[in-house]
Specification:
By secondary structure, the chain is mostly helical. It is about 75% helix and about 5% strand. The protein is built from nine helices and two strands, in the order E-H-H-H-E-H-H-H-H-H-H. A two-stranded antiparallel ribbon has the order 1-2. Helix 1 crosses helix 9, helix 2 packs antiparallel against helix 4 and helix 4 runs antiparallel to helix 6. The longest helix is centred in the middle third of the chain and has 34 residues. It is globular and about 60 Å long.
Length: about 230
Amino acid sequence: MEPGNDTQITGFLLLGLSNDPELQPLIFGLFLSTYLITVFGNLLIILAVNSDSHLHTPMYFFLVNLSFLDICVITTIIPKMLVNIQTQRKVITYTECISQICFSTLFAGCDDFLLAVMAYDRFVAICHPLHYTVIMNPHLCVLLVLMSWIMIVSLFYCTVLGVYLSSAATQSSHSTAVASVMYTVVTPMLNPFIYSLRNKDIKAALIRFFKRATIKGTIVLVVKKCP
């Protein structure tokens, strides 16, 4: 038998956005603030919709799922990035890399399909307003969300994973990193502002939510002070 190459890949070297040590604290603070804004903004949307019965409609049901997916997308990327920046460790194990690719692709793909479902919901609301409540019934809404998950799970195993693992040699690593950051970090942060926080119903629901929370907190303080 001819001798072969039995070298096994145990990890990958992360190039990062910059190798300048002076920029590392700035990059860390930027991504940490982006992560906190994204999680906090999307959690506000979930709390507002779940706490207000007026928002229990198909459109806001999809928005809640979109907010949840945005949190999942950014959570698969940013925490690991922050740890690497803080510890100055630029290596990711093979298992961690594959897991991160699978989960980020899964959540991002579901995010895209859910946006398509939301577009269909608005199409029905605009073009068939009299039949909207009949067409977009709760059973169909849940079914559409489940279909978004099932479709992306069946697709990404044979397509996107191969694209990620077979990078082109002529492609610029810096431009790829910037493009990845724009898609995986900036987009989930902007979604709450684009789709929900500019919405009057969401704003009203948030105001009612904070008022109820303030009243409950005041009542608890009064009860504790009473002998």
